[in-house]
Amino acid sequence: CGVFGVFNIKEASKIVYYGLHSLQHRGQEGCGIGTFNKDVVERVRGEGLVTEIFTKKNLEKLKGNMGIGHVRYSTSGGGGIENTQPFLIKSHRGNFLVSHNGNIINGDILKRELELEGSIFNSTSDSEIIGHLIQREEGIFIERVKKALNKLEGAFSIIILTEDTMYGIRDKNGLRPLSLGKLNGGFLLSSESSAFDIVGGKYLRFLEPGEILQIKKEEISSEKYRKDTQNKMCAMEYIYFSRPDSNINNLNVHSIRRKSGEILAQESFVEGDIVIGVPDSSLSSAMGYSDKSGITYEMGLIKNRYVGRTFIKPTQEERERGVRMKLSGLESIIRDKKVILVDDSIVRGTTSKYIVSILRECGAKEVHVRIGSAPITSPCFYGVDTSTRKELISNRLNEEELCEYIGADSLKFLSIEGMEKAFGKNLCLACFTGEYPTEVYGLLGGDNE
Ligand code: 5GP
Ligand code: SF4
Ligand code: MG
């Protein structure tokens, strides 16, 4: 998912709209914006893309200079309008809005407790729990939020908006990103810094794990709501999720991906005529591979715009149709060439298998697949739908078998050490290593055994 917040900037809903538009790659199932105009709160939400849900007319309804938004990518909880965010919590102590990116890993336990105490949930999303927990606590608002946060386990970057304050929060492992920016004397929060550029804002800094930032009038204050923090941001943000023009932890995503491609070339060089990347997420690493290997970078695959990200479409059939609609091969570039194809990751193997077949149809002499990350063998419980262990192809097939399955002449993955060299050491790599930075609350049973 993607979250975006605007504080003290006129026509806030328009700024949120542009922010969400530039975060659309993070989730396409639903979106929403909520604003405060003094104590009047308004919301527009729907299932679909940002450009489908918002209109000039409904944005005008969202008045005031404070607003937050959300683009949804469903992992737990499923679809439906009631699961789109921001959530609105209504209370005699004041209303507030919540946007959340991530996954609350002890959500089921907390929800059961809350329901026994009388909370009524309007959605099946784990994100709604945050609001109810805050609601149940006593004290001034920030103290209630901090108490609630200390009960949550898992991945969460959260933006909360009350009638006079905006909060930005990251979980104690910093699993999901969140950045602070400014614009015209007001402030912005965003899953990705590239959204600041789009609205003409300026990036200020990346939030810390376990941090709660409070933005009130022109003042910003920050504290740690817990001490036991560590930096374990999701490696997939660098590999796949984030836009190349985003900076994470002051590092530019494109440059980092490029470096991973260079390391990939060092680790698994192969003779070839051209290097091509799979648009968009693998172009940077393909450039790095080309640089380091001295083999020409070419544009061999063209992406059909306006088709959503394949992975985010829930069923396998939809996913396959999605891939087919999404890419075309450039025959004049590919014919009779030894092609090195760089992709960012293999999850179920659908994409690689299909792209190798496109390249063969276009007359490639050889196809050597190089992957800019290690084999994914463990499920993610932190809000990325890499699915169950059973569905992960690298769990069933070793490198050689997988090479045959996708129909390539050779296949190599980047090593874990290579990933650490490119992306840094302080990252969550659980889906590659099985070492989870949090307790997993029995989630490793069933299809995940
Ligand atoms: P597969 O087709 O092997 O199941 O998925 C891998 C492909 O899906 C890659 O090309 C990658 O760019 C894309 N992809 C889309 N969403 C995700 C995601 O959430 N995680 C990962 N690792 N890859 C994704
Ligand atoms: Fe990211 Fe993988 Fe960790 Fe999930 S398990 S947060 S996808 S690195
Ligand atoms: Mg891809």
UniProtKB/TrEMBL annotation:
Required co-factors: Mg(2+); [4Fe-4S] cluster
UniProt superkingdom: Bacteria
Protein EC: 2.4.2.14
Xref: Pfam families: GATase_7, Pribosyltran
Domain Glutamine amidotransferase type-2: 1-218
Chain sites annotated for binding Mg(2+): 281, 343-344
Alphabetic keyword roster: 4Fe-4S, Glutamine amidotransferase, Glycosyltransferase, Iron, Iron-sulfur, Magnesium, Metal-binding, Purine biosynthesis, Transferase
GO molecular function: 4 iron, 4 sulfur cluster binding; amidophosphoribosyltransferase activity; magnesium ion binding
Keyword Transcription listed: no
Cofactor details (free text): Binds 1 Mg(2+) ion per subunit. Binds 1 [4Fe-4S] cluster per subunit.
Entry's Gene Ontology BP terms: 'de novo' IMP biosynthetic process; purine nucleobase biosynthetic process
InterPro entries membership: GATase_2_dom, Ntn_hydrolases_N, PRTase-like, PRTase_dom, PurF, PurF_N
EC category: transferase
Binding site for [4Fe-4S] cluster: 234, 380, 428, 431
Catalytic activity: 5-phospho-beta-D-ribosylamine + L-glutamate + diphosphate = 5-phospho-alpha-D-ribose 1-diphosphate + L-glutamine + H2O
Active-site residue list: 1
Matches recorded under CDD domains: GPATase_N, PRTases_typeI
Annotated metabolic or biological route of this protein: Purine metabolism; IMP biosynthesis via de novo pathway; N(1)-(5-phospho-D-ribosyl)glycinamide from 5-phospho-alpha-D-ribose 1-diphosphate: step 1/2
NCBIfam families per the UniProt record, alphabetical: purF
Record family assignment: In the C-terminal section; belongs to the purine/pyrimidine phosphoribosyltransferase family.
Purpose: Catalyzes the formation of phosphoribosylamine from phosphoribosylpyrophosphate (PRPP) and glutamine.
Protein name as annotated: Amidophosphoribosyltransferase
